[in-house]
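Consider the record:
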Amino acid sequence: MHVGAMSLWEIALGMYPTSHFDQFNEEPFVMIAIWCFNIITAVFLLNLLIAQLNGAYAAVYDDMVGYARLNRAAVIVTTLEQVSEKRWARFIQAQKFEERLEFNEGDIGLPGGLQLTEPSNANPTTVDAIRRFGGSTSRTVPWPEEENLDGGDDDKFERLEKLIVRATK
């Protein structure tokens, strides 16, 4: 069996002596099996080549992105060297880093950042990850009881919505 497998690989790779093909012409079933093996082997090897090229492209692309970032950083550094101290201080003051950022209406967050808004359909979320409770913030007051722990209709709709989101991706 191992000699036959080696012969099939030699045929697929073009290393088998052509003088031996006359023996295969006498047996049509063997010739059909050899051609099927050659086709399957060619498809498999082409898929393997495509996978190798795809992996190499991904690695080159990652390197390209890294070099582009380094180049961009070098441009920024050389540009910042030309900015005067007075102008830089005025720029920092105009950014208002000492003011707190507003997450939502009435939800004041941390200072020291830039607030950017995005379209509401860019990252849809139906369940707020931050749980907010009204009332006193005293440590002696117990946490409020959570609602909808019975797994009612809200839970069913939530599962249905997650299923729809997964199906549309």
